[in-house]
Amino acid sequence: MRISRISAVALAVAGSLGVAACGSSSSSSSSSSSSTSSSAAAATTKAAGGTVNGAGSTFAAPIYQQWSSNLKSQGLTVNYNPVGSGTGVVDLQTATVDFAGNDQELLPKDISGMKGPVFQFPVAFGAITVSYNLPGVKSGLKLTGPVVADIFAGKITKWNDPAIASLNSGVSLPSTAITVVHRSDSSGTTAGFTTYLADVSPSWKSSIGAGKLVKWPVGTGGPGNSGVAAAVKQTTGAVGYVEQAYALVNNFTFAAIKNSTTGQYVLPTIANTSEAAAGAKVSPTLGMVTVNSASGYPITSQTFIDTYQDPCKSGGASSGTAAALKSFLTYAFGDGQKTLGSGSGQIPYAPLPASLAAMSNAQLAKLVCNGSPIS
Amino acid sequence: MEASATTVRGDRSVLERSPLGRLPDRLLKWGLTALAVLILLLIAYFFIRLIGESTTSINTFGLSFLFRNDWDASRNIYHGAALVIGTLVTSGIALMIGVPVAVAAALFLTELCPRRARPALGMLVDLLAAVPSVVYGLWGVFVLGPKLEPVERWFANTFSFIPWIGGGASAITPGNYFIAGLILAIMILPIVSAISREVIATVPSENKEAALALGATRWEMIRMAVLPYARPGITGGAMLGLGRAIGETIAVVLVIGDAPTLGHHIFSQGYTLASVIANEFGEAANVKIHASALFEAGLVLFILTLIINVIARWFVNRGARSMRAARGGSAAPGGDVMVAAQAAGVGGAE
Amino acid sequence: MSSGGMSLSRLPEISARRRRTDKVMRASLLVGTVIALIPLVLIIYYLIYKGLGTWNKNFFTTDPNGNFFGNHGGIRSAIVGTLEIVCLATLIAVPAGIGVAVWLTEYGKQSWFASLVRYFVDVMTGVPSIVFGLFIYIVLVISHTGGSGFAAWKGALAVTLLMLPIVIRSAEVVLLLVPNNLREAALALGAPRWRVITRVVLPTSLSGLITGSLLAVARGMGETAPLLFTVSTAFVLTGNLNTQMNTLPVQIYNDIKSPEPSIVARAWGAALTLVALVLILNVIARLIARRSRLG
Which one of A164, A267, B62, C251 is most buried, counting C-beta atoms within 10 A? Predict the structure, then answer.
């Protein structure tokens, strides 16, 4: 039948395309987490080859994606899908990924949905900037926490509102309307930002509250940190909460937020972020609420990697994938940390303070596969 | 063709076949029947699953899912009136803008256009259906939206006294109902136009010639002879366009602003049933009530398109049937005008 | 109107008002047609204007990478991934769809069962494609069927569900157009049923079948929603259908949300690629349809 001939030809063409493309690709093995033959057999060097799949936070996506690029040369394939912290957690609960990027510490309801005990590893810190698009107004517009809360609650609607003007005497503010931009998806960045707002504004706390997904009273939704950044970029008069790296890459103008303890207006620089990170209070499970420390940038957020304590038993991962996961995490708390910082060529996040990195490494040693430690 | 068909073999009629010879026939028949049954079962399972997953939400929220406005994922409360209204508003805008343009184009192409240009121009309009949803979204976000913003601003300022359309420039957001409706209008153009063309082409030429012979101008001929006969079919086409617009997900989610509240006018952000699924399903998957609510949104969408499609089909075929009867001729082979249009490649919603 | 009687008296003059109305309305119809054509022109213009600049050898031979600085890579894995998934979907949907259409026209005909099948297939065409993705997600992804979570073959199944009704309906239209006397002649000459189908019906309608299938393939290629929750995404090129894979629509969808100009430019380039592929398929399909004896 001619049709089956055509189909056969199509199959052959597609197949040869696929094979040719595979053959020429520089990245090697693409073993899935279900490979029955142990992909550890394919690992000839110390760094195990293999594929690790992750998803979640857009806050930290630039980190994991850059590390993925760096690790390709070691034969380790890391796929990271920036779908937002909420979705990342769900993906880990359904074990469709090996690790989740999550900016919020695991809540009881997150843990109860998991297939087994989980670890959360702090990975880095970043500032949540309040970025605005106001031609003529430079970075460093002074804002206090309560004022920010009122802006995002829709109570302050114009840029030259007295509440803002009184804090910025030297700056000429236009009468442009404020367009609030927030996240439309479930986001750890939202969780961090709203936690801060709930801390500084009792009315925010009672009417809107904090969490990965809240009911914003005003504003447009954008998907992911990049969606919010894109919306801010496109709209004059827009204000949105955007993770530091996204703001820096786009040369956004952002506000200097008043640290209620020191009374200083602090800009979201890496140095100020690290300062806040150093004062972070950590729980025994390595969790922490948004870092609202006594010094440094007030809206600093941590970001975690969540995995199963036993990815093989709980997540159905093969031993090869578990080894790859461990390699990835070893890099994350080791050489990976050196890629973070404010230097040229570094990804603009604040690395873990040494004590926290040590705690992460100690917890990493407890990662097992079907009960036995991973080499 | 068997050359031996003309010879008689033994005392069996040459046209009888041995049981073994009938085997391939039997195999084919039962094989294909099994395939059809399989497809039917698959589709049935699909619907059963869709309904099954929605029951939790249906039981919890009942009718207020559709009629109350309070979609709050953080409290796990899902009353989707804002979504339903958003869906209806964007589709309504799409119809109001898209149908007149599509019908005008259809009329032009069938009645006024020089014959040689007709296939090429027709294909160009149909090609709009080939553009993927995500490309419409890309174009909407970076081209149409920014370019139309000054127009929206002017409109909102000039007509600020009209509720829901005006409201002044302060309420304009980059993603809003209007842009979504406009993009949807472009997306339904090909299907409404294709069906209208099919329907207009079946108007009996005797009617048209009679009008012209009586001294009507071309426009009067269209108005008297073509439109009345074509109206049911065109209505059907418009309803199919509506069905398409209602289910459109990806292009809309990129340009509507994604806010689960009810925007105060057409230039503010909103949400539709389809786009909420795209945005929220990721984190809903493991939260039973949230996932169920999103499935229910899908079910509502699906029932809406089902009803609209059924009504549309009835309209289109009623129109086509009456015209064929008027012509007194045999039914066009393969009858269904809409299927023909669909075979022309103007299809469903993404 | 005519003045009655048998005389072919002069028809009343067309008044200036009527002439004006006619001119105005005809111009409006022309304007309407031009308006209908403008979006296509604008879309293609902007695709070329913003996307063509990204087309270079690297764009098609490198995969997207996660580099924060510098070169963000091309779209090779997206193109190959789309081809792999769509090929798989086509291999299932086209034979199955044509098979069901053959059954409907040759065996089922007007029976109640055939009407039921037709009705269900009709109903399928109205389902928004994201619902197919959800269905596959619930049935195959969460349950880790095949040992994987997100996987390319599961996405291909979602695309198959989308393509099936299109193939079935368009194939049925074309098969019904085959004149019955051709079938009867073959049967009268002693050909068995299956021979009639394979040697007479299918070859006669072949160009129509190809047209319908190509249009379904073009549709399947451009869909994003069925892939979002079934295949997820990946950077690297892979031939393994049981794992996450990159695809053009999902790549574009993700890149749109980025504020980085070079990534948005990549989205335009990828969109241009996708539209080029889809338009080529569409044009070929329509040309075949036009050439066909039955079309």
Answer: C251
